Amino acid sequence: MSDADQVSPEGGWTRDVIVALPPYSQDDRHKNEFLLPIIKEQLEIARCNNQQIDNYFSKQGIGIDAIQKLEDVPYIPVQMFKVFDLRTCSEQEIVKILQSSGTTGGTPSRIPLDKATTLNQIKALKSILSDYLGERRKIFLVIDHEGINSPKMAFSARTAGVRGLSIYAKKIFYLLKEEDGKLSLNMPVIREVIENYSHEDVYAFGFTYIIWTVFYEQLKAEGIQFSFKDFTLFHGGGWKKMQELAVSKEAFSDTIAEVFCTQPGNILDFYGMAEQTGIIFVDCEHGNKHVPTFSQVIIRDPFTLEPCDTGKTGFIEVMSILADSYYDQAVLTEDLGVLVGVDDCPCGRKGRYFRFVSRVEKAEPRGCGDTFRESGR
Amino acid sequence: MITCHLVEGKFETRLCQGFDEITQSVNTGREALAVIPLDAIIKILDALGKRVLKNPEINTLPGVSYISLWLRRENLDRICRVNYSDKRYLDGFCQSETNILMMAQPRGIVCHWIAANMPTLGFFSIVQAILSKNGSMVKMPGEYVTLILSILRELPEISVDYEGTTYSGKSLLDAIAIVTFEGKSTRVSEKFSLAADCRIIFGGSEAVRAISRLPCRDHCETIIFGPKYSFTVFGREYIESDGFKRSLDQLAKDVAVFNQMACSSPHVVFVEKSRYSVEVIASWLRDSFERLPGALRNQEISSGLSAKIINARARYLLSDGKNCVAPGDLGWTILIDQEICLEEPIQGKCIFTKEITSVDEVIPLVNHKIQAVSIGILDPAKREAFARQVAYRGADRIVIPGTIHDFILPWDGIMTLNRLVRWVILRNN
After folding, report:
1. Structural fold of domain A136-271
2. Which residues span the domain enclosing B153?
């Protein structure tokens, strides 16, 4: 589509209109035009409803009117969800607070959700998944244990994945079980799936590290393989440990594709976080993660914090228009990524596409400069 | 596996299984060193300082110009006098009291564990071993080996005349071995430790504890330059004096040198309530940071440290009653709040700035982890009273802004050269 072809929809670019669009249908250069006004409006409301966010803007002398492009929207580091209440609506409107322990444990992030935000997130996730899975509901295999989805469990990246992806499920099977804190194959369920659902369209989700070290290892030992009519695996997380095991993304895809008698192109790594529930950045068949219409990704230089050009590694900043209830308009993650290109991925999806590089290494004080605290007292 | 970068005066990289050969070579080298008069050694080092400054390949490297200054004969003379009271003790038995002659004997082989925060640290440690006529086996962080070797390469080119004899810098070099090995390898670390007559350990808490626990010989002396913390205090009269802005330039430099990774790097500045608000002072400090030379302002940092700084800035910007002054990049950060406490170091030029009613409020914060307190207090009586109090509570060095990293002995409260020798007596008949 050329510039001249870019036509505002009737009634303008409202959030509902944008979320309803095919998720990878818009050129990146138009995003400023249709996302920025919505985000600016959300920022005004955020400032009015949250003293901390107002502090953040006023101390930096940021006027919302002066924000000209998405790159200028003040980002809040993802860790701040662990320290501050970043709610941007009234307390009465909150229906749920997500508490995400993340993958590294410690203090959980608190993400307050109202009804509208939850609905937007579901719509957005459905839109993304439909691009990869089609419109029909399918059998959903969770490569984890059932307890991971229990309301009693802390909300983690694994929980978020199961809950988020289950919106396309017509039936859910948990292929692992947990006993004494150890994961192992849930053989009765695996047998049931192989016997009764091999002719079905199936999709699956699992945590990359668990798929490799528990699921794949034990399947190999048992000599089990699956074969479905159609199969897609979404997996994410644990790449630091996978790097330690020297397992590349390609090696993972090739090996796991064999287990499911499918093509490596159906093994899809995705990137997402509880602080931006509703948006996942899924690999296309060319190994690139695509940014949907209602979101934007900016890679920022780790020293200058300026947006990076393609090919340069930096912090991944994720932007979204989905939330009314908390500050998810611009969140700076502690992940490193690289922008691969814009609008021209051979898969045909429009918008920016990037790759995840690694989690940021935790910085311990270096040298002989140290804490002021005396030991042994 | 051990990689040896310098031994027997040869700059060759070779792999070794153990330290036996290296120890033997250093022992041979130190025998020759022991008979060189201390004044001749100082003369060689003084010449080395002048040579490195003239060498265009190294004179622009960080810290090299300071090395040159530090190696001046007057400075080394002063260091030796402070440590030994009389330099002659190093060269032979001298009268101390009636009937007792005394001599300072080198301990033997000094094994140095050099921290990775300061490129030239290893060199200063080696020179102290030379000034006490000890041999050195230095475990150096890999990234600094090239720099140290390029300085030491000048030694064989130096010869000095002293009292009719010519002495070569080569004799100093022969008593030094530079090695690198994986510190996590307990077996190699143990062997290294057991080779020592004296151990000098630089490093953070974890490293110091691990190395201290290594087995060593019964007579082995261990000198620890462990984890420490430093900060700055300005009194009201000083803040209101003409020189204050210049002192903020010095403070910015203190913060920037070594990118706050040294034990002498200040992490907090306390400013006594004055006619200038803390915000005004922060704006002056901002200007000082922006005046830093590019190489100091824009030092490379890890992405982990970037994240730490970004988080600290956001915490201060989001909080009530706190503020943050910082540029768009991560060149430097001023974090302002009113809580009277020391703060965990962030590093990467993040300075906590706090207003206090009286400089005395800072005194209870000082403990034995405090190395340097740089002070700007005008009134001499107030200054000395403050210094006495913080010294009593644990501070080792009370200095002025701009000099916090000056490597003046004693350091960390330790007279290093004195600890590097054994004091031997000879009773007169």
Report:
1. Rossmann fold (3.40.50)
2. 2-226+412-427
